Amino acid sequence: MQEIRAISLHQPWASFIAWKWKHCETRSWTTTYRGELLICAAKKQTRELEKYYNRIIMQVKPNTWNELPKFQNLPFGEVVAIVHLSECNLITIRPACQLERDTGDWTPGRYAWHLNNIRPLEKTIPIKGQQGLWIPSPEIYSSLICTNG
Predict the structure, then answer these.
(1) 3-state DSSP assignment of residue 36
(2) How far is it, in rounded angstroms, from Cα 132 to Cα 93?
């Protein structure tokens, strides 16, 4: 059985994936890994990230944006979703979906990681993130099973 991998993303991108607004993660690097992937929200918070979040939610939910959590209330330093990484393609064109374009860097020469079967966690799990793809600890597996079935 293949071990699950994890990736840490800054907010709000981690939540955008968990909310199923974002189905591709764009990266400057490729991977041969395919399979289950934990989406982890990094701990970092900046005013620039908050401004970006506010701009995107106003665009997506213009009449109901106040029903979404404030940036400071998003999960930070936590696993927020499990996805299936199905493909990793060199970017040659931008996607048709405006939201997907706005939540990624679609510069040709970068890579689009295609995320399917997005499953937000009912209860997020505290985690210390790492750079790149990494293997979560056995304690994280136990927490996933105990708190999210």
Answers:
(1) strand
(2) 24
The residue type of 135 is I
Q: What pLDDT does 67 receive? A: 82
Do residues 132 and 31 make contact, with C-beta atoms less than 8 angstroms apart?
no
Please tell me the pTM assigned to this model. 0.92
- Taking only Cα atoms into account, the Rg of the chain, rounded to an integer number of angstroms, comes to 15
In angstroms, how far apart are the furthest CA atoms of the chain? 46
- Reading the block at residue 42, the tokens are 């990094």
* CA 19 to each of CA 56, 78, 91, 131: distance values in angstroms, whole numbers, following the listed order: 13, 15, 24, 23
Q: How far apart are CA 50 and CA 71, in angstroms?
A: 6
5 close to 134: Cβ distance less than 8 angstroms = yes
More confident: 95 or 143 = 95
Q: How many residues does the chain have?
A: 149
Strands 24-27 and 78-90: unpaired
pLDDT, position 26: 97
Residue 82 sits at the vertex; the CA angle it makes with 113 and 67, to the nearest 5 degrees, is 95
Q: Is the pLDDT of residue 1 over 60?
A: no
